Amino acid sequence: MSFNQEFDEHSAWRQAQAARLQGLAEWLEARDLLDPGARERLEQLRHQLRSDKVMVAFVAEFSRGKSELINAVFFAGYGRRIMPASAGRTTMCPTELGYDADVPPCLRLLPIETRLQPQSLLEWRGAPDQWERIDLDVNDPGQLARAIEKVAEVRRVTQDEARALGFWHDEAPEDNPLVGPDGLYEVPRWRHALINMAHPLLKQGLVILDTPGLNAIGAEPELTVSLLPQAHAVVFILAADAGVSKSDLAMWREHLAPAAERRDSRLVVLNKIDTLWDELSTPAYIEAQIQRQREASAQVLGLSPAQVIAVSAQKGLLAKVRDDGRLLTESRLPDLERALAQDVLAQRRTILVESVQAGLEALHAQVEQHLHARGRELDEQLQELEALRGKNSTVIRQMRLRIEQEQAEFDASGARIQAVRSVHLKLLKEVFALLGSTRLKAEMAQFAAALKQPGIKLGIRRVYAEAFDRLRAGLQQAQAQLGEVQDMLGSTFRELNTEFGFTLQLPERLDLQRHTEALDLIERNHLQYLGLTNLFRLSQPEFAERLAKAVLSRLKAVYEAAADEVELWNKSAAAQLDGQLRERRKTFARRIEAVHRIQQAAGGLDERIAELRQQLEQLAQDREALERLSREGVAVTEPAEAPAAAVDTRADTEMATDGER
Ligand SMILES: Nc1nc2c(ncn2[C@@H]2O[C@H](COP(=O)(O)OP(=O)(O)OP(=O)(O)O)[C@@H](O)[C@H]2O)c(=O)[nH]1
Ligand SMILES: [Mg+2]
Asked: For residues 538 and 544, is the Cβ–Cβ distance under 8 A?
């Protein structure tokens, strides 16, 4: 299957999963089981499935064929080149292709001069009026291609301007732009380009990032330390006729090599194999040459030859446009598409399956708890009424009095529960403050100031270590505080369980370790980036500012995720307490009503007992159904290349899977 087909399948699967969760939500709602905790959890899972993005980034030295490869893999359907690809430097600014239904199809370009201001790219994204906008007509490939040519635009500036914009460094003269006959220097006209179009793959959540060659991307820290580390796959491209040059290697080291601990994938492509096609040589000789180039490249990059995929982007594009099956095979483009589909999509699915499964398990436990409590209430009522059989009116009246007294005692405890609640909320607020943006910003302001000290280059590791140690300490403090909240609620739950026969149970304890690890990764990414070739840039204050902003924007995502987790945990715990209190109140009302009816017409007892039995029966059925429904949520239709986790999932969901086929 091609990448495109595989991607279609992946989104169909996501949609089916989201629809299942919707069904589960409705089922719960109909049974009055969709408490705020359950609702939030289902909402989060559905959001995750719906909005899941898959970002594939193309990184390489200039003219290796990044843009051509993007044309060949994704846009051949337009029957022509969409991304500009030509000899020499072509793509001058990072170009992101994606789809946002809220914005009309357009190309947005952020002027390079914005580099003189401190805002991060993320902040500029939120300021649409600062971008130049060109509407795109996806039904007119010619217009599309002409508009997108803008990403190749340049400006001519003086040396001082070039320096201010981050394109001139006395420390790295070999990377500086060449002076033109007019004494001016050529720099990119745009800083970043966003293409929003309703292409089928983009609509389903694919995001493609095309980048300019070395130096151009080094100057934009956010790209290296935020965007690329978040890509699900990075495709690194070499040219078969040139092999691995010094700058290829620099690029590899800076952007691709430090990825061992991550779950994403790196693909290495040896492009332009058609330059080795030679009418005077035998096919066997050509094949041997391609193999030799693969082996040589693999060796320099420290990979096995099998990890280097040889293709011809140009011939692949041509073959697709002309519908020439033989040329397509010769271009070997399908090899790359298979690798992309397997590596990227299978991995993405594994992650989604794991997360939906974990979410559903937690949900199941939570709702099951609720049903269990409901069952106990019904059982007790049943016993109570059974005991009334054949009893005279005095006994019945006494029973009623006893229930009313119990009810009064229970109501009186409401104030105590409220008090516990408010202490709990106060503690929780402190946790949220520790994870909140105000605190984070304050920490980062201190960090930004440290970065701007003159001569910081030597002490850079220490500055990062200090800032990140403070952040880690903050997370640890949040964890400790959270532990207190959990302990407190735990003991309250135990007390209530003893006193009122509740079955309250705390949701599984939260561990913020994952977020601490995310901090470690960000720190490593940054030090890696600075350690290699970009340290000299720190002498420019705007750069230090941008670097600090880049850290902040990634940290924000980590802190928001942590706060969301705490929020969900809290909602689940609170919903349980609320649910059981509510259930109990209802039970009192029902018990009193039942006894009242029996008092009135001495004959209602059997009917009420039968009714309770039936409710219990229904409850047992619901519990079974719930078990099935929450398992089905991940019993997936088989992906083409079943990832390991999906196989595990199916092992204990045989019934559901069978039922589906
Ligand atoms: N012969 C041959 N030429 C190719 C192939 N792929 C790309 N090219 C050519 O190589 C040149 C550079 O290709 P681009 O796609 O612009 O390269 P890029 O990596 O995007 O370069 P920048 O945008 O400058 O960073 C263009 O003239 C392409 O036509 C290929 O497979 N075979
Ligand atoms: Mg390009």
From this structure: yes
In short, whether 204's Cβ falls inside 6 Å of ligand 1 is no
Q: Is the pLDDT of residue 21 over 70?
A: yes
Are residues 68 and 317 in contact, defined by beta-carbon separation less than 8 angstroms? yes
pLDDT recorded at residue 646:
32
The pairing of beta strand 154-157 with beta strand 185-188: antiparallel
pLDDT, tens digit, for every residue of 414-424? 888 888 888 88
Tell how strand 106-111 and strand 95-98 pair up. unpaired
CA 386 to chain centre: 55
CA distance 27 to 23: 6
Give Cα 333 to chain centroid, integer Å.
Answer: 29
Reference 610, options 593, 628, 634, 594; nearest CA is: 594
Indicate if the pLDDT at residue 647 is higher than 50. Answer: no
Q: Which ligand is nearest to the CA of 274?
A: 1
**Which CATH superfamily groups domain 53-153+189-331?**
P-loop containing nucleotide triphosphate hydrolases (3.40.50.300)
CA-closest residue to ligand 1 atom 29: 86
Ligand 1 atom nearest the C-alpha of 70 is 15
Which of 93-97, 349-353, 384-388 tops mean pLDDT? 93-97
Structural contact between residues 595 and 399, judged by C-beta atoms closer than 8 angstroms: yes
Rounded to the nearest 5 degrees, what angle is found at the Cα of 219, between the Cα atoms of 218 and 225? Answer: 60
Strands 233-239 and 54-59: parallel
Q: Which residues contact 462 (CB under 8 A, 6 or more apart)?
A: none
Per residue in 434-478, pLDDT (tens digit) is 999 999 999 989 898 888 887 777 788 888 999 999 999 999 999
Q: Which of 66, 68, 330 to mutate to test the pocket of ligand 1 (most atoms within 8 A of CB)?
A: 68
What is the torsional sign of CA 462, 463, 466, 468? negative
The Cα 299–Cα 270 span in angstroms is 13
* Number of C-beta neighbours around residue 37 at 10 A: 25
On the 0-12 / 13-18 / 19+ scale of CB atoms within 10 A, 601 is exposed
As a whole number of Å, the CA-based R_g of the chain is: 31
Closest CA to 572 of 370, 344, 414: 370
Instruction: Give the rounded distance of the alpha carbon of 657 from its chain centre.
Output: 27
> Which two structure tokens, joined as six digits, stand for 569?
């945990």
| 276 close to ligand 1 (CB < 6 Angstrom) | no
Report the SS3 class of residue 154. Answer: strand
Backbone angles phi, psi at 298, to 5 degrees: -60, -40
pTM: 0.81
Report whether residue 188 contacts ligand 1, using a CB cutoff of 6 Å: no
Q: How far is the CA of 86 from the centre of ligand 1 (A)?
A: 6
Strands (E), 100-157: 106-111, 132-135, 154-157
> Would you say the CB of residue 131 lies under 6 angstroms from ligand 1?
no
CA of 153 to the centre of ligand 2 (A): 12
Q: Which of 58, 59, 62, 63 to mutate to test the pocket of ligand 1 (most atoms within 8 A of CB)?
A: 63
Q: For residue 237, which atom of ligand 1 is closest to its CA? A: 19
Residue 442 half-sphere exposure, CB side, CA atoms within 13 Å? 8
Residue 603, pLDDT above cutoff 90: no
Distance from Cα 390 to the centre of ligand 2, integer Å: 90
Of 421, 652, 448, 399, which is closest to residue 553 (Cα–Cα)?
448
Residue 251 beta carbon below 6 angstroms from any ligand 1 atom: no
Residue 15: count of CB within 10 angstroms of its CB: 13
Q: State if residue 85 touches ligand 1 by the CB under 6 angstroms criterion.
A: yes
